[in-house]
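Entry
Fold in token form

___
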Amino acid sequence: MKKSLLALIFGSALFLAACGGGDDEATNDTNTGTDDTGTEQTTDTGNDTATEGTDTGTETASAEGETIVKSNCATCHGGNLEGMGSTPSLADVGTRLSEDEILDVILNGRGGMPGGLLQGGDAEAAAAWLAQQK
């Protein structure tokens, strides 16, 4: 009886420790990331007119991917994507995996990560942004 009670208490403590902690940091980082993206677009707008349209489109797609990642992945991977507990860091995931490999992980899962958390264009935008993180 005592062993099962101890196991239940230990399991509950482990579960609560794994689930707690990341939401406040994720909210603050999302706001910071949005502000930084706006500054970058303003800076690039003052450059060459011929490349301005291309850069803005790339930056818009990049900003969309960053927003998707920060709002969907930060809960488990940390506000700065530094990894939390048993979840790996995504801060430099582009050095370890290609964009196609990242997309495969997002769609099909790997290890403790379930597949299908993002679908379609959101999954592709997130994979493209994560592949740039080196």
Observations:
- The domain at 23-131 is CATH 1.10.760.10 (Cytochrome Bc1 Complex; Chain D, domain 2).
- The chain has six helices and two strands.
- Residues 23-55 have pLDDT under 50 and may be disordered.
